[in-house]
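Supplementary notes for students who missed Thursday's class. We covered one full example, reproduced here. Read the sequence, then the structure, then the short commentary at the end.
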Amino acid sequence: MTKIRSLQPDGATSVPRARLRDLGIKIGEHPTGKFNAITDVPGVEVGHATLHEGSGALVAGGGPIRTGVTAILPNRGNIFHDRVIGSGFVLNGAGEVAGLTQVMEWGLIETPILLTNTLSVGACSEGTVQYMVDRYPSIGTEHDVIIPVVGECDDSWLNDIAGGHVQARHVREAIENAKSGPVEEGNVGGGTGMLTCDFKSGIGTSSRRLHRHEGGYVIGALVMSNFGRMSELRVDGLPVGQYLVPRFAKLEKRTRSYGSIIVVLATNAPLLPHQIHRLCKRSALGIGRVGSSAAHGSGEIIVGFSTANKVPRETTKRTYRMQVLLDQAIDPLYRAAIDATEEAILNSLTAARTMEGRSGHVVPELPLEPLELLLKRRRDALAKGL
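Structure (token representation):
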């Protein structure tokens, strides 16, 4: 079995345990990008601001604090002047992505994309506006106003969610920390207080590179994952959650709300808004593979964008020429989006560490040894032709 080093259980740092591929699990037919992350799409950067303070009983406004902000920059931060083509899809709407209405109407994304907890959407919108106006003082005078894109999930099981702990400075920190390359996963940024299928999760990411004869395009997914019951968890088709339920029978679990998930898809394939909308629909299939039934109180929302075409805010021209992928060539992207979404969710689980939050609530990390054992049994059975 893979040897995973022992880590402290309180989740106070973001050092991950493992990624899914460290366990020998490979999802789908396409290879990953260099970092197996959304940042494999050229120009995409990710940054986090993580808030982890206090312990013990909940004191409204005083903690414990288990939350944060994650920022996705579509084109190295120049999104205001060089807007990208975007769209989205709502599988179940018991959640929110502020700004998505305009994205769907215009087919454009013109601000960073922020992820946080449900009650901090306003703070992230305000922080993004402050950051953008400082950088582009013409907003609201020479240029149109902006509507930041901010997605949320409910981290109230672990976090003092009503305490107003996320502030504008944390938004700026996440944006200014954004970089290409490897992406921190698990208990970081907006994912700090999130859980999936009763195990600790948070931020996860994955990417796929299409084969050369399919165009060689890259697609990446980043998730803030926070849905489901333990019994529903599936890993590469195996009902792992059902196997683990007896082991955690005495665990106090979240029962009032089963959370949500926000997926951000990025690609350098030249897509139109309606094609990105269709791509986002396929990402929802990846969520279902892990065990989501899009429960009544859960919000499954996907935001997607393509970096292939930049739509300038200012130009003297009346028309703009774009590259467009023909619909008959889009199927490989669909498969890659499903696979990358599934693996991103599982990476959020395998990377995250046990966390104790408000009022003594403890969310355990997904145990990796039983998972490896189940997978080994399947491999052995396949080798024997069973």
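Commentary. Confidence is low (pLDDT under 50) at residues 1-14. The chain is about 25% helix and 25% strand. If anything here is unclear, bring it to office hours.
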